[in-house]
Specification:
Layout (H helix, E strand, L loop, with lengths): L6 E6 L7 H11 L6 E6 L4 H10 L4 E8 L4 E7 L2
Length: 81
């Protein structure tokens, strides 16, 4: 799926469990420019709902896609403001 997006940065939070994937995603989004896309790689299955909930409740970010792989969950977040 990453071919659909121009990835500005990849955040590897594999091995981290709730709430760290969301905490680190927020920090990484703060460090990219408006319009850029952050790819987040996680191994915690809870990151699917956690990052979705965070993005839905946070102004300035848009969750573009989530991909559930065999061992890795990929999240694509765009900074919108």
């Amino acid at each position: 799926m990453s071919a659909e997006f121009d990835i500005a940065e990849t955040l590897d939070v594999k091995g981290a469990s709730c709430p760290m994937p969301v905490v680190k995603t927020k920090s990484a989004v703060d460090d990219i420019e408006v319009g850029q896309v952050l790819e987040v790689l996680a191994t915690d299955s809870g990151s699917m709902s956690d990052i979705q909930g965070w993005a839905d409740g946070t102004a300035g970010v848009e969750l573009l896609d989530q991909v559930e792989g065999d061992d890795v969950f990929k999240h694509y977040v765009r900074k919108t403001e």
